[in-house]
Amino acid sequence: MSKPTFPLPPGSTIGIVGGGQLGRMMALAAGRLGFDTAVLTPEANDCATRVATRSLIAPYDDQDALSVLAQIADVVTFEFENVPAQVIDRLDFLGASTAPNGRSLAVAQDRIDEKSFLNACGAATVGFSPIETADDVVNALEQLGVPALLKTRREGYDGKGQSWVESSADAKAAFARIGGRPAILEAACSFVREVSIIAARGRGGEIACYPLAENHHENGVLRRTSAPARSAAKVGAQAETIAARILSKLDYVGVIGIEMFELVDGRLLVNEIAPRVHNSGHWTLDGCEVDQFEQHVRAIAGWPLGPTKALARVEMENLLGKEVDQWPKFAADPDARVWIYGKGEARPGRKMGHVNRLRPLS
Ligand code: AMP
After folding, report:
1. Which of 20, 26, 53, 354 is most exposed by smallest CB count within 10 Å?
2. Is the CB of 179 within 6 Å of ligand 1?
3. Does pLDDT of 77 surpass 90?
4. Torsion angle of alpha carbons 286, 292, 296, 302, nearest 10°?
5. Would the CB of 217 count as within 6 Å of ligand 1?
6. Dist. CA 48–CA 54, nearest whole Å
7. Ligand 1, atom nearest to 111 Cα
8. Which residues have a Cβ under 8 Å from the Cβ of 123 and sit 6 or more positions away?
9. How far is the C-alpha of 83 from the C-alpha of 61, rounded, in Å?
10. What gap in Å lies between CA 63 and CA 21, rounded to an integer?
11. What phi and psi, each to the nearest 5 degrees, are found at residue 335?
12. Does the CB atom of residue 271 touch ligand 1 within 6 A?
């Protein structure tokens, strides 16, 4: 397919690599603006396939499926961070227009590259050290102190592939706990709260940021987001500066989620970047003029970015596992907006939906 001209008109096709809830909500937003969607996922019944115009069921690196996707989609994006970055490179090679770019995905997939990139952007992080062996853990602990958090370099999410190291005597066991894989050791951050900023960059380099959100994790998984975050005037401006630097340096197009730790002195340290729409941005679905999914579609389609102002304060709660069975209660609550992802089995801890509870701003 020849490279499209932006802005893409309604009727164009948006390709989405990945078939989970983020792809589903992206496809719903795309549909509202008059776009068709084509989802590539290895799972036949993935939840995005049931709202997309068309689905390609194949492994992410299936050459035939990638050729078809490049052929039918006017722009291709992704909703899943562990899509191999080579898939985006391959789509580029096949003549597809991809957004965000493969470099943004590659940087976010490797915790060492990610933190090195962030520091090079002037965004502070916790101290860290690359780990190849259990002996590296012992040496790095001297510099970073105890406890420290050992995380696999790649493919960790929702707290998986992580282990606290309590002392140098614990180094070997901790390294074994994360599977003896290449890793990063991070200094423990004693934060006052965890916050995130959802930001977008358009094809002309313009940037729009949503109000800062405050996040509560349990066992490494996001449990609740409250937004706009309270007392955020100063940290909000700091977060916007950080986001603008990251987006510009990556020559990014689309929505990004940036997770940060707020320190007692008000400084922000970036924990990680997610080169996609983000769980801590689900509050925007009911709290903002234009939500993060529409914003992402607008950005990659070359449309003007939409307004990001909050119209309400929102408490977003993830529905994990069987909690989704309480949908009649949420449906009966006039202050609650319930989003259910249509996933089959409610396995413990699986993100099955979320509820946005609306409160007045102030
Ligand atoms: P991550 O997989 O990096 O998003 O980490 C999941 C959660 O673990 C974070 O949201 C924090 O609650 C916690 N965490 C991660 N890194 C650190 C750190 N260096 N110090 C303290 N807590 C951390």
Report:
1. 53
2. no
3. yes
4. 70
5. yes
6. 10
7. 3
8. 242, 245, 246, 270
9. 9
10. 25
11. -90, 0
12. yes
Show the tokens assigned to 34.
Answer: 């008059």
What are 307's two structure tokens? 């307004």
230 Cβ inside 6 Å of ligand 1:
no
Amino acid at 78: F
Sign of the alpha-carbon torsion through 302, 303, 309, 313 = negative
326: CA distance to ligand 1 center in Å? 29
Ranges 149-163, 226-240, 248-262: which has the least confidence: 149-163
Closest atom of ligand 1 to 162 CA is: 2
Angle ∠(350,356,359) on CA atoms, nearest 5: 150
pTM: 0.97
Average pLDDT over residues 342-361: 96
User: Is the CB–ligand 1 distance for residue 58 below 6 Å?
Assistant: no
Q: Is 145 in the pocket of ligand 1 (CB under 6 A)?
A: no
Radius of gyration over alpha carbons of the chain, in Å? 20
